[in-house]
Amino acid sequence: MKLTMVSLNLKRKSNVWTMIHAMKSYANVTGAARFITSVSRVVLRLQ
Questions:
Q1: Is the entire prediction scored with pTM above 0.90?
Q2: Source organism's superkingdom (predicted)?
Q3: DSSP type of residue 14
């Protein structure tokens, strides 16, 4: 019984972690895109 409870808790936690990881990866991608656009703007201004 205890093992099944632990496995259920781990499954729930893993779902939460996957959600958090997806959020973080999305934030990283958007941040990288913004950074690249800002850098490209600066480079274009310098040219």
A1: no
A2: Eukaryota
A3: H
